[in-house]
Amino acid sequence: MSIWLVEPLDPLIARDGRPAAVGRFDTVGFPFPSMVAGAVRTRMGSPGGAFVIPRGALEELKEKVPVQGPLLAEIAELGAEGGEVQEWLAPVPKDAAYLREEVGKEKEKTERTVLRRLAPRSLGPGEAMDSLSEKGLLPVAMQPHPPGPPLPSPSLPPGEGGNAISAGILNTKPPADVPAFWAWSDFAAWLTAPADSTEEHPAPVGIDRLPVERRAHLAVQPGERVGIDGMLFETAGLRFLQEGATPLTPRRFALSLRCAEASVAGQALALRRQIAPLGGERRLARWSLAGKEWPELPEAVRAAIVATRRARLILLTPAIFRHGALPGWSGGPWPLGKSSGGGVQATVRAACVARPDVVSGWDLAKGRAKKSRRMAAAGSVYFLTLDGGSADDLQAWCDAAWLACVSDDWEERRDGFGLAALGTWEDAR
């Protein structure tokens, strides 16, 4: 499979499902995998510009062209073959809690943003969870800071917010300047050994959400260049070209995806370098091969998972599970098959899951709207225990699960829902 970059040349409209009849074309904060997968199959099925796959072969097209992604990438100056990847970016994991902390003496206190690690902890005497206890889940809590005995603070059950307080932490809402994406170097360090930020090791800065650019449009009488009364509408798009250090050195971002060539209805299909539409209003994007592969699984993470039989699974794209925020494969058959880890069985012991995203869409093959589905948002974290299998099976499981899609159903995995990375975890003490 090859890694491709898709760089929108105009603000990208990734429609949010609201009808256009309201006079607005709004966008979600980041494109959902199904939009990118549909665009990839359209481009592969349009070698000469027109879509040539017959309607009866559309299911075969979706079956034979699985797409993984998108991941955000920052690219360098445009070269002969397209943009060169400077850095991969990952959504900030939900077990990283940004908080405001007071520092300094009593009369000279200042506030700063700090990072606190969330991890599962066992219930103490007289403690109980008011929900999800029947599924054997543990609450998650912050590591006491500074080091000391656990503080009697509220725990964080899966899918809920919280305000666990340690010395110096302000009991307020999370700070507004929290990044949405981390550089992969910071993300890899968090996968290997998550830790609270300190003066020596400050919290990763990352980048904000992609800015939204709004434009007003007016329908024009054909051939007359005169506006039609009342025909105003507004579009909102995600801007991938952003301000850099100087006006002459802007920062360029692109969507990255992974797919392979295929043969559908007797035709050989493949992506090619081109400038082609993407998203609403058929705005143009540059499609080009990436100069390098997606990051590999850190050896330290693989070794720790094999030694402890514990894995932290972090979603890089939203996932769709049958039971809402919790995977249907927890405690049962692994969705990627027996060949990807032998008899290893993964069980969710705790989770950090944000408010769900909702996705719908239009089914071109059936000519009707798709049903709305709730998704576990990108950045959600699942703390797993791994049972069964040998050490070799555990290594095979790690290799198969790394940057693979872990949604419950194949129909969702082939569209890129549930792309995941692996990390290590220890109990909060």
Note down, in words, how this protein is organized:
The protein has 429 residues and is mainly β. The protein folds into three domains: 2-91 and 210-289, Alpha-Beta Plaits (2-Layer Sandwich); 96-178, no CATH class; 299-423, Immunoglobulin-like (Sandwich), CATH 2.60.40. The protein has six helices and 25 strands. The chain has helices at 33-44, 58-64, 184-192, 299-308, 391-401, 410-413, and strands spanning 2-8, 24-25, 68-79, 82-91, 96-103, 110-120, 140-142, 181-183, 212-220, 227-238, 241-242, 251-259, 262-264, 267-269, 274-277, 284-289, 310-315, 345-352, 357-359, 362-363, 368-369, 373-375, 381-387, 404-405, 419-423. Strands 1, 3, 4, 8, 11, 12, 15 and 16 form an eight-stranded antiparallel β-sheet that branches. A five-stranded antiparallel β-sheet has the order 18-23-17-25-24, with helices on both faces. 38% of the residues are buried.
What would the keywords be for this entry?
Alpha-Beta Plaits; 429 residues; 25 strands; Immunoglobulin-like; mainly beta; 8-stranded antiparallel beta sheet; 3 domains; 5-stranded antiparallel beta sheet
Mean pLDDT: 84
Largest sheet data: 8 strands, antiparallel
Assign the CATH class of the largest domain.
Alpha Beta
Q: Tell me the count of domains.
A: 3
Overall geometry: globular
